[in-house]
Design goal:
2 copies of one chain form a homodimer. Chain A has 5 helices and 11 strands, in the order ββαββββαββββαααβ. Chain A has 196 residues and is of the alpha/beta class. In chain A, strands 3, 4, 5, 6, 7, 8 and 10 form a 7-stranded mixed sheet that branches. In chain A, strands 1-11 form a two-stranded parallel ribbon. At the A-B interface, β7 and α5 of A face β7 and α5 of B.
C-alpha cells in the first residue's frame, strides 16, 4: 500500500498575490485555442496537482475556487518538450508560489492518480480513450503532490484556496463534476499518516 | 506510469462447474453474520479482483453476474490470519479455478486499486473512513490481477462471467453501483499494452 503523510491545514500559511485572470474569455475561445494548438503541436498535455492536508484526521483536498463559483485543482497545460513533472512544478510555482514568481520549485511530485482524455474539440473528457479515437486532442494527468510539514501558499487575488473534505467530494458530481468527485476513490488506496 | 498488458477476451476459455449458492439468504442475514464475525474477530477484511482483458483495444473488466441480475467482482472476505494476497488467490481458485477445487494458485496479484470501508453494520461503504468512526466493521480492497496470455476460467453454474467495457461502467452508478462504476477512474493511471 503506498503511504502518504498528511499535516494539518493549520500548518500552512496562505498569502495573497496579484490576480491571474482566465486565459480565455469563454468556453468557445478555450476550445478554439485548443484546436489551434493541436494543429501546431499535436495532443495537448495538461497536469493537475492533488494537494492533501487533514483536519481532525480526515483528508481534505486543496482546491481553487474561481469567482465564488466553480472549483478546480491547481494545474494547466504544459509546454511541448517539458516533462509532466517539470511542467507541474512550474505551474505550482506560478499558481501558489511567492509573488515575485521566482519560487523554490520545491514541490514533491508523487504518483499519477488518474488520466483523462479529450477525444475531440468538445468539453467532455473520459478516464479512457473512447472507442475509435486514434488522436485524442488532450491528455490530462492528476498527480499527488506531497506537502512538507509547513509551507506558505500564495494565492492569486481572484481565487480562493479551499480545503474540501473527502466526504464532501464523494458522490457529489452534481457540485464538483466527474473529475473532482472521483478523487476520494483515487486516494483510497493510500495509507495516510496523520501528523501534527 | 504503471504498465499492464491486456490480452483479447478470445484468448480465455470458459468452463462451467457446480453452483456456488449465496452464503446468506438475505441482506439481513449477511449483516447479521458480519456482526457475529466482528464480535469474534474484529474488522472483516474482504478482497476483490479486477481482471482486465481487451476487445478491439478497449479494456473490459471480468464480472460475475448472479441470477441474471446484479454484478460483482470475484471476491470474498478472508480468514483472519491470512494476508490479503493469499486470501485473494484462494478465492480466485475457488471461484474461477478448475472443478476439482485444487487449482494452481497461479494468480498474479497486482497493486491495490482502492479501499472501501464499512463504518457500521449497514450496507453503505465509503472510499475513506468516515469522520468519528474509530472501529470500521469491514475493509474491502480491490486488487488488479494480471492475467496470463491464455487461461481456462471455470465459472459456477449459477453465475455468468461477463466482460464489461469501461465505457459501459463509466458514469453508470445507476446500474453498477458506486464501487464498480468507479473502476474506469481507478484504472486510468495505467498504461495498457494491448497484445494479441
Amino acid at each position: 500500500m503506498p503511504e502518504a503523510t498528511l499535516y494539518p491545514l493549520a500548518n500552512y500559511t496562505f498569502g495573497v498575490k496579484e490576480a491571474q485572470p482566465e486565459e480565455d474569455p469563454s468556453v468557445h475561445a478555450r476550445l478554439k485555442r485548443l484546436q489551434n494548438d493541436f494543429e501546431e503541436h499535436g495532443m495537448r498535455r495538461s497536469v493537475e496537482a492533488v494537494l492533501v492536508v487533514h483536519e481532525h484526521n480526515h483528508p481534505h483536498v486543496l482546491m481553487l475556487q474561481i469567482a465564488n463559483a466553480f472549483f478546480k485543482l491547481p494545474g494547466h497545460y504544459i509546454d511541448p518538450g517539458m516533462t509532466e513533472e517539470e511542467g507541474l512544478k512550474v505551474i505550482l510555482n506560478e499558481r501558489l508560489g511567492p509573488e515575485d514568481g521566482v519560487g523554490d520549485m520545491e514541490w514533491e511530485i508523487g504518483e499519477c492518480l488518474s488520466t483523462w482524455w479529450r477525444p475531440s474539440f468538445e468539453q467532455y473528457m473520459y478516464p479512457y480513450v473512447p472507442a475509435h479515437i486514434t488522436k485524442p486532442t488532450e491528455r490530462k494527468r492528476l498527480f499527488v503532490v506531497h506537502l512538507p510539514p509547513h509551507k506558505v501558499l500564495t494565492v492569486p487575488r481572484n481565487m480562493k484556496l479551499l480545503a474540501v473534505p473527502l466526504f464532501e467530494l464523494y458522490d457529489n458530481a452534481a457540485r464538483y463534476g466527474p473529475q473532482l468527485s472521483a478523487i476520494p476513490h483515487l486516494l483510497s488506496r493510500y495509507d495516510f499518516n496523520y501528523e501534527k
